[in-house]
Amino acid sequence: MRFYKVVGQTSLKKQLIDGVNAGRIPHAQLFLGKPGSGTLPMALAYAQYVSCLKRQENDSCGECSSCRKYETYTHPDLHFSFPYPTKVKDDLASDYMKEWRAALAINPYMNFEGWMQHMDAENKQGNIPIRELRSIIRGLSLKPFESEFKVLVLWLPEYMGQEGNVLLKIIEEPPQNTLFLLVGEKSDRILNTIISRTQPVRVPPIKTDDISSYLMREFEVDEVNGSRFALMSQGDLNLAKSLTQETENPYFQQWRNWMSICYTRKMGDAVKWADEMSGIGRETLKSFFLYGLEILRGIMVFGFRKQAGSWSAQEQDFIQKFSSLDIPISQLEKIILGIEDAISNIERNANAKMVLTDLSFVVARNLKK
Ligand SMILES: [Zn+2]
Fold first, then answer.
1. What's this model's pTM, rounded to 2 decimal places?
2. How far apart are the CA of 197 and the centre of ligand 1, in A?
3. What CATH number did the domain enclosing 12 receive?
4. Centroid of ligand 1 to alpha carbon of 263 (angstroms)
5. Is residue 134 domain-shared with residue 197, that is, in the same domain?
6. 44 alpha carbon – ligand 1 mean position (Å)
7. Domain identity same for 86 and 36
């Protein structure tokens, strides 16, 4: 993986590259970022750059013997560890390298669910068991075969549990020229003892502009849709890509149902709706509401200009019907404010069911002439 293939993240790339060129290569680093932000590709690009034999100013060369093996994730000094479902007694992550390399080749931005799907193990538990951790320690105690550096990329340290503490000693006093690149999503689920011994590398969500130009380049979406999908994805490349593949926005039906519940004031249904929606996860909820805000703004614009912009046929139909209800703009603004409040309450970990129930009442109150 070369840096240029990592979507966006210009300033972080520069910071990492400058560090290597100045000889600052911390031996234990924790790449931390939300799913779809590119933590894993970033760590892989970093490892390849550190190991490249003809390092260029801004990227690895992609051609030297080290890069060629790094590109296929087959370099003998590149070690991987990751959560996996136990399929055979005493199996190790190294037993699944074929699957792992294939998954990386398909989508290095994959998340845990994507990886488990790839392993045909959607309903099984994946973790990093203690025998895997012991095998990491054994593997790293060997000298590098070809490179100056021996690199361990440990994906999702969240999945190693308390057993992860067996790694503390080797992280603290590593064999010479050993790099630990831990790649995680949620710092509150990673052992504090591990966090305190690693140098943090914060990977922010990908910028909206970077995602939209990626979508326009790779998926041939037009500028308007590129920006819309990018905005809705909140910096998650996987979500952005899946939005381009939906002929209809995945949130549309849910949004239409909820609006209809609020408009007809079936508050019993609103409570049921809140109950269901509170289980879909904070990030998905936020995306759902961001989508809804887009639609509401579309409705407000439609009121002025009598044209619906770039929407699917179903969305356009919904916007037209909604506009014909003639809800005053001041009330639409109250609904928008209510949704924005709900988003920030959800971000602050408020009880989602309560937030959603209250919000339905606000919407219902304002959804009338
Ligand atoms: Zn190279």
1. 0.73
2. 29
3. 3.40.50.300
4. 61
5. yes
6. 13
7. yes
Q: Are residues 29 and 123 in the same domain?
A: yes
How does 308-345 read in b/e, with b if 16+ C-beta sit within 10 Å?
beebeeebbebbeebbeeebeeeebebbbebbeebbeb
Q: How close is the Cα of 39 to the center of ligand 1, in Å?
A: 21
How far apart are the CA of 330 and the centre of ligand 1, in A?
60
State the distance from the centre of ligand 1 to the C-alpha of 21, rounded, in angstroms.
14
Ligand 1 centre to CA of 332 (Å) is 56
Can you state the percent helix, strand and coil of the chain, rounding each to 5?
Answer: 60, 10, 35
| Angle ∠(221,204,250) on CA atoms, nearest 5 | 40
Can you give the residue range of the structural domain that contains 360?
246-366
How close is the Cα of 79 to the center of ligand 1, in Å?
A: 18
pLDDT by residue for the chain (369 residues), tens digit each? 999 999 999 999 999 999 999 999 999 999 999 999 999 999 999 999 999 999 999 999 999 999 999 999 999 999 999 999 998 999 999 999 999 999 999 999 999 988 998 998 877 788 999 999 999 999 988 888 888 899 999 999 999 989 999 999 999 998 989 999 999 999 999 999 999 999 999 999 999 999 999 999 998 888 888 888 898 888 999 989 988 876 667 788 899 999 999 999 999 999 999 999 988 888 888 889 998 998 898 888 776 655 545 677 788 889 888 988 889 999 999 999 999 999 999 989 899 999 999 999 999 999 988
